[in-house]
Design a protein that fits this description.
The chain has helices at about 50-65, 105-115, 120-135, 155-165, 200-220; strands at about 1-10, 15-20, 25-30, 40, 70-80, 170-175, 180-185, 190-195, 195-200. By secondary structure, the chain is an alpha+beta fold. The strands form two sheets. Strands 4-3-2-1-5 form a five-stranded antiparallel beta sheet. The longest helix is centred in the first third of the chain and has 18 residues, at about 50-65.
Amino acid sequence: MLTVVGFRLGNGNRQMTAVVTESGRLHRAHGPYGAPGRASRPHTPVRDNPVHRHVAHLRGLRSRYMAKGYSDELIAGACVQLELEETPPPPAPGRAHSVEPSWPLLFRAFDAAVPAAPGGTLEDAINRFYTTIGAPFLPRRPDRPAVGGRPAAGLPRRVAALRRALADGTAVSSSPRLAVGYTVTADHVRLHVGRAGESLPRQDVVELHAALSAWLHLNTAK
């Protein structure tokens, strides 16, 4: 069995489906309404925590396609188990990667496994996905209502820019010159010393944020 999480958006004529698998691969397919569509080359696992990284990409894809006019939520979000084994194809001779004809099976299986009325949101599905595969995660709160068409309006410009970067799957990291550093993604706040590191629970992140805010206010004039 293969556990996946994904969504499908449409613009009235065409649809786009994106799915992340438990092995940390991001698959996409585009096509007309009612068809599985053509599978694009998948994004293979990268760096540490590939599942979390591609789930962040999944969120970013949804935001970008919604902005492009894909406003029909054909599948708002679903976490399902497929009777498939995900085996990446070997590269074709002389090519870095090739699209294997069996890949569309993943999208047809996804269609068949998604309930007729799945309900819930993409975040609900992502939470179920993480729980099912046993991956650590911090449940995300719903986004604040958009004001003037811009999410999280009223945030300082730098904070808003970093928020967009995190939503698009980009990690925010400290300078490599620091002996003790940090890496922030959409799902984790991680402190590290050399190769050793630890992800902070949400409550510790809240306390750290409060302490840093207090320090900045205390040292504003310095």
